[in-house]
Protein backbone atom coordinates (compact mmCIF):
# COMPACT_ATOMS: atom_id res chain seq x y z
CA UNK A 1 0.00 0.00 0.00
CA UNK A 2 2.79 2.41 0.92
CA UNK A 3 4.55 1.63 -2.37
CA UNK A 4 1.39 2.47 -4.34
CA UNK A 5 1.07 5.75 -2.46
CA UNK A 6 4.69 6.67 -3.28
CA UNK A 7 4.17 5.74 -6.93
CA UNK A 8 1.00 7.84 -7.14
CA UNK A 9 2.74 10.78 -5.48
CA UNK A 10 5.72 10.49 -7.83
CA UNK A 11 3.49 10.41 -10.91
CA UNK A 12 1.56 13.43 -9.66
CA UNK A 13 4.73 15.44 -9.01
CA UNK A 14 6.20 14.56 -12.40
CA UNK A 15 3.02 15.60 -14.17
CA UNK A 16 3.03 18.91 -12.29
CA UNK A 17 6.64 19.57 -13.25
CA UNK A 18 5.96 18.64 -16.87
CA UNK A 19 3.16 21.18 -16.93
CA UNK A 20 5.38 24.00 -15.69
CA UNK A 21 6.49 25.21 -19.10
CA UNK A 22 5.87 28.94 -19.17
CA UNK A 23 3.22 30.02 -21.66
CA UNK A 24 1.60 33.35 -22.29
CA UNK A 25 2.96 36.82 -21.63
CA UNK A 26 5.82 37.09 -19.14
CA UNK A 27 4.99 37.73 -15.50
CA UNK A 28 7.82 39.36 -13.63
CA UNK A 29 8.31 38.95 -9.88
CA UNK A 30 8.37 41.88 -7.49
CA UNK A 31 11.95 43.26 -7.49
CA UNK A 32 11.80 43.39 -3.68
CA UNK A 33 11.60 39.57 -3.61
CA UNK A 34 15.05 39.11 -5.23
CA UNK A 35 17.40 36.81 -3.33
CA UNK A 36 19.90 39.65 -2.95
CA UNK A 37 19.05 43.27 -2.33
CA UNK A 38 19.28 45.34 -5.50
CA UNK A 39 20.43 44.18 -8.89
CA UNK A 40 23.82 43.24 -10.26
CA UNK A 41 25.90 44.90 -12.95
CA UNK A 42 25.89 42.27 -15.68
CA UNK A 43 28.71 41.73 -18.15
CA UNK A 44 27.21 43.09 -21.38
CA UNK A 45 29.20 40.70 -23.58
CA UNK A 46 27.80 37.76 -21.61
CA UNK A 47 24.28 39.12 -21.90
CA UNK A 48 24.72 39.57 -25.67
CA UNK A 49 25.52 35.85 -25.95
CA UNK A 50 22.17 34.76 -24.51
CA UNK A 51 19.88 33.28 -27.12
CA UNK A 52 17.63 30.37 -28.04
CA UNK A 53 19.09 26.90 -27.63
CA UNK A 54 21.40 27.58 -24.68
CA UNK A 55 21.25 25.10 -21.79
CA UNK A 56 20.77 26.04 -18.15
CA UNK A 57 24.45 25.29 -17.52
CA UNK A 58 25.43 27.71 -20.29
CA UNK A 59 23.06 30.33 -18.87
CA UNK A 60 24.58 29.85 -15.43
CA UNK A 61 28.06 30.37 -16.91
CA UNK A 62 26.95 33.56 -18.69
CA UNK A 63 24.70 35.26 -16.12
CA UNK A 64 24.98 33.25 -12.91
CA UNK A 65 22.01 31.86 -11.00
CA UNK A 66 18.63 33.56 -11.27
CA UNK A 67 18.08 36.40 -8.79
CA UNK A 68 14.79 35.03 -7.49
CA UNK A 69 13.80 31.72 -5.88
CA UNK A 70 13.55 29.84 -9.20
CA UNK A 71 16.69 27.76 -9.31
CA UNK A 72 15.16 24.34 -8.82
CA UNK A 73 15.00 21.17 -10.89
CA UNK A 74 12.34 21.45 -13.57
CA UNK A 75 11.91 25.24 -13.37
CA UNK A 76 11.22 26.76 -16.78
CA UNK A 77 11.65 30.47 -15.95
CA UNK A 78 14.64 32.36 -14.58
CA UNK A 79 14.40 36.06 -13.67
CA UNK A 80 17.24 38.51 -13.20
CA UNK A 81 17.51 42.05 -11.85
CA UNK A 82 20.29 43.92 -13.65
CA UNK A 83 21.68 47.40 -13.06
CA UNK A 84 23.00 49.65 -15.82
CA UNK A 85 24.51 53.14 -15.77
CA UNK A 86 22.94 55.91 -17.85
CA UNK A 87 23.70 59.62 -17.53
CA UNK A 88 25.22 59.18 -14.08
CA UNK A 89 22.20 57.27 -12.80
CA UNK A 90 21.69 53.58 -12.06
CA UNK A 91 18.80 52.05 -14.00
CA UNK A 92 17.33 48.74 -12.81
CA UNK A 93 16.00 46.34 -15.46
CA UNK A 94 14.26 43.01 -15.03
CA UNK A 95 15.16 40.25 -17.49
CA UNK A 96 13.40 36.93 -17.93
CA UNK A 97 14.69 33.75 -19.55
CA UNK A 98 12.26 30.98 -20.49
CA UNK A 99 13.24 27.37 -21.08
CA UNK A 100 11.47 24.80 -23.25
CA UNK A 101 10.72 21.16 -22.39
CA UNK A 102 14.32 20.22 -23.22
CA UNK A 103 15.50 22.90 -20.75
CA UNK A 104 17.00 25.06 -23.47
CA UNK A 105 16.40 28.79 -23.80
CA UNK A 106 13.28 29.41 -25.84
CA UNK A 107 12.63 33.13 -25.22
CA UNK A 108 13.96 36.15 -23.34
CA UNK A 109 12.06 39.25 -22.24
CA UNK A 110 12.72 42.64 -20.67
CA UNK A 111 10.09 43.99 -18.29
CA UNK A 112 10.74 47.40 -19.85
CA UNK A 113 11.56 46.80 -23.54
CA UNK A 114 13.71 49.96 -23.62
CA UNK A 115 16.27 48.13 -21.43
CA UNK A 116 17.34 46.18 -24.53
CA UNK A 117 19.09 49.37 -25.70
CA UNK A 118 21.81 48.80 -23.09
CA UNK A 119 23.04 45.88 -25.23
CA UNK A 120 24.02 48.18 -28.09
CA UNK A 121 27.13 49.40 -26.23
CA UNK A 122 28.05 50.18 -22.65
CA UNK A 123 26.69 53.69 -23.19
CA UNK A 124 23.56 52.54 -24.96
CA UNK A 125 24.48 53.99 -28.36
CA UNK A 126 26.17 52.29 -31.30
CA UNK A 127 29.92 52.78 -31.57
CA UNK A 128 31.10 54.03 -34.98
CA UNK A 129 33.69 51.84 -36.70
CA UNK A 130 36.84 53.57 -37.94
CA UNK A 131 38.13 52.44 -41.38
UniProtKB/TrEMBL annotation:
<dbReference type="GO" id="GO:0019867">
    <property type="term" value="C:outer membrane"/>
</dbReference>
<keyword id="KW-0449">Lipoprotein</keyword>
<protein>
    <submittedName>
        <fullName>Outer membrane protein assembly factor BamE, lipoprotein component of the BamABCDE complex</fullName>
    </submittedName>
</protein>
<keyword id="KW-0732">Signal</keyword>
<feature type="domain" description="Outer membrane protein assembly factor BamE">
    <location>
        <begin position="39"/>
        <end position="107"/>
    </location>
</feature>
<keyword id="KW-0472">Membrane</keyword>
<dbReference type="InterPro" id="IPR007450">
    <property type="entry name" value="BamE_dom"/>
</dbReference>
<dbReference type="InterPro" id="IPR037873">
    <property type="entry name" value="BamE-like"/>
</dbReference>
<feature type="signal peptide">
    <location>
        <begin position="1"/>
        <end position="22"/>
    </location>
</feature>
<dbReference type="Pfam" id="PF04355">
    <property type="entry name" value="BamE"/>
</dbReference>
Amino acid sequence: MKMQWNLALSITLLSLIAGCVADGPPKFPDPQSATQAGGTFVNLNSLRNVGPGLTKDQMFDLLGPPHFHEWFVGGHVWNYLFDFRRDGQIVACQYQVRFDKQMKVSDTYWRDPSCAAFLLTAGGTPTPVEP
